[in-house]
Design brief:
This is CCA tRNA nucleotidyltransferase 1, mitochondrial-like. Its cofactor is Mg(2+). By secondary structure, the chain is an alpha+beta fold. It contains 22 helices and eleven strands. β6 and β7 form a beta hairpin. It is elongated. About 3% of the residues have low confidence.
C-alpha cells in the first residue's frame, strides 16, 4: 500500500516533489531475516538518543526485489561525531572509515559490520571526488544518489520511503538516473559504468535504454579517463558477471567508452560472444563459470605475453589475474595451430594440459583454459580430479651423483621431459639409470 505527500525541499533547485511511502512491500520473512536483533538493536540505539536512522540504498533495492542484500547500510541525521559518541557510550565499537564524508563503520557481533552515513549533499564535485555538507533533509540525500532504485530508505518496520519513483522503476525492471543524467554523471563519471552494471542486474532485455540516458553517456564518456583503473576494473568485472554482457559491451564501443577505458580495439566480438556462451552454460549447469579477466581478454584479437601483460597492468589487474590472462592468449594461439594441423585428440590435449600443471601453472588456471576452449566436460573433469604428481628425482639426488651447476640443471630438465613422456610413471630408480 502506498501513500503520497508533497514536501517542499530546502534546495531551491529542486521543485516540489511527491514522496511515496509503501507498507508491506517487503516480505515479512525476508525482513525478519535481514533485520535481525543485531541490526534492530543498533537502530534502536539511534532512536533512544533522539535521532532517526533508516536502511539506505542497495539493501532497500534488493529487499524490494525479494533478494537478500549482501550488506545493510544505514543513513541517519546524526553527525559522525555525535553518533560515535553515543554508540561508544552504549558499548558499540566504531571505526571512522570515511568520517570526512560522514561514514563510520559499526562492528557488531560475529564480525558483522554496518556502515552508517550522515545525510549529506555534494557541495563540490569534480567527476571523481566530492566535498560534502551534512543535512537533515532526507530528500536532498536521496537526490544526490545515482539511480532511482538506489534512492530509497526503509525503517525497521519495513516501510519504504521512495522519493524518485524507484519502486515503479523496479517493478518495470528499469534503470534511471535520479533527475538529470548529465548532472549525476558529471558528479562521478564512474556512474556510467554503474549504469551498465545495474542494467545487467535488473533489466529483462539487453537493449531497452532511454534515449536521453544514452545521449548523456555518449557526451560524457571521456570523463572516464579521469577515473582510476582500480575503480573501473571493479565495476567492469560486475558488468561481465551480469546479464546482457554482449549487448552492453557492444554498446560501450558504440558510445566511445572503449577508447576512454582503453579496451582492446577494435574488439573481438565474435570471440567474446563464443566465450560468453561457454561461461553462461557453465554457470547454468552449476559450474563456477569463467573468471572476469578470461572473458575480458577474449576481446583481444591476438597478443604476446608482453602486450597482454601491459594491457592487464594498465587495467590494474592482480598478478594472478594477469598470469591467467596471459596463459589464455598464449595457449589459445597454440590450440588454434594444433586444430589447423589436425594434430589434436582429446587424450593428447589432456596430456598437454597436465604438462602445463606439472610445469607450474595453477590447476585452477588450466581448468579455466579448458573451459575457455570449450573442451568436453569429461576431459575437464579428468584434469580437475587429477592428483598432480611430483618429479621423483630431486637436486640432491643429482648432487650425490657428482652433478652440479648448469650441468645438474640440464640433466634434471632432460629427466623431467623423459618422465613427462612416460605419462609420469617412470620411477626414481628408472630415471637415475638414465643419467
Amino acid at each position: 500500500m502506498a501513500t503520497n505527500s508533497t514536501i517542499q525541499s530546502e534546495d531551491t533547485n529542486i521543485r516540489k516533489y511527491s514522496v511515496k511511502s509503501y507498507k508491506g512491500l517487503v516480505k515479512p520473512r525476508l525482513l525478519k531475516f535481514v533485520l535481525d536483533n543485531r541490526i534492530t538493536d543498533l537502530m534502536d540505539c539511534f532512536t533512544r538518543n533522539g535521532y532517526t536512522v533508516k536502511i539506505a540504498g542497495g539493501a532497500v533495492r534488493d529487499m524490494v526485489l525479494g533478494l537478500t542484500p549482501r550488506d545493510v547500510d544505514l543513513a541517519t541525521n546524526a553527525t559522525p561525531e555525535i553518533m560515535q559518541e553515543f554508540l561508544e557510550r552504549e558499548g558499540y565499537r566504531t571505526e571512522p572509515t570515511g568520517i570526512k564524508h560522514g561514514t563510520i563503520m559499526v562492528v557488531l557481533e560475529d564480525k558483522l559490520t554496518v556502515e552508517v552515513t550522515t545525510l549529506r549533499i555534494d557541495k563540490v564535485t569534480d567527476g571523481r571526488h566530492a566535498e560534502v555538507e551534512f543535512t537533515n533533509d532526507w530528500q536532498l540525500d536521496a537526490a544526490r544518489r545515482d539511480f532511482t532504485v538506489n534512492a530509497m530508505f526503509m525503517d525497521k518496520s519495513g516501510e519504504v520511503t521512495d522519493y524518485f519513483n524507484g519502486v515503479v522503476d523496479l517493478s518495470e525492471l528499469r534503470i534511471r538516473f535520479v533527475n538529470n543524467p548529465v548532472d549525476r554523471i558529471q558528479e562521478d563519471y564512474l556512474r556510467i559504468l554503474r549504469y551498465f552494471r545495474f542494467y545487467g542486474r535488473i533489466s529483462a532485455v539487453g537493449n531497452k535504454h532511454e534515449e536521453h540516458t544514452i545521449t548523456a553517456i555518449r557526451e560524457n564518456a571521456g570523463g572516464l579517463k579521469t577515473i582510476s583503473k582500480e575503480r573501473i576494473w571493479k565495476e567492469f568485472q560486475q558488468i561481465i558477471g551480469g546479464d546482457h554482457c554482449i549487448a552492453l559491451i557492444k554498446l560501450m564501443y558504440e558510445l566511445g567508452i572503449a577508447e576512454a577505458l582503453d579496451l582492446p580495439l577494435p574488439g573481438n566480438f565474435k570471440e567474446l560472444d563464443r566465450v560468453w556462451k561457454v561461461h553462461k552454460q557453465a554457470v547454468f549447469y552449476g559450474g563456477c563459470g569463467l573468471n572476469p579477466e578470461v572473458i575480458f581478454i577474449s576481446l583481444l584479437e591476438g597478443g604476446t605475453e608482453h602486450s597482454v601483460g601491459e594491457l592487464c597492468s594498465r587495467w590494474k589487474m592482480s598478478n594472478k589475474e594477469k598470469k591467467l590472462a596471459i596463459l589464455i592468449v598464449i595457449q589459445r594461439a597454440i590450440f588454434t595451430k594444433l586444430v589447423i594441423k589436425s594434430s589434436i585428440t582429446q587424450e593428447a590435449y589432456t596430456k598437454h594440459c597436465k604438462d602445463l600443471i606439472v610445469e607450474g601453472q595453477p590447476q585452477s588456471h588450466i581448468i579455466q583454459l579448458m573451459m575457455y576452449l570449450a573442451r568436453a566436460d569429461e576431459e575437464i573433469e579428468k584434469v580437475h580430479k587429477w592428483e598432480v604428481p611430483v618429479l621423483p628425482v630431486t637436486g640432491h639426488d643429482l648432487l650425490a651423483l657428482g652433478l652440479q651447476g648448469p650441468e645438474l640443471a640440464k640433466v634434471k630438465d632432460k629427466l623431467k621431459q623423459k618422465w613427462k613422456d612416460s605419462y609420469y610413471i617412470l620411477s626414481k630408480e628408472e630415471l637415475l639409470k638414465l643419467v
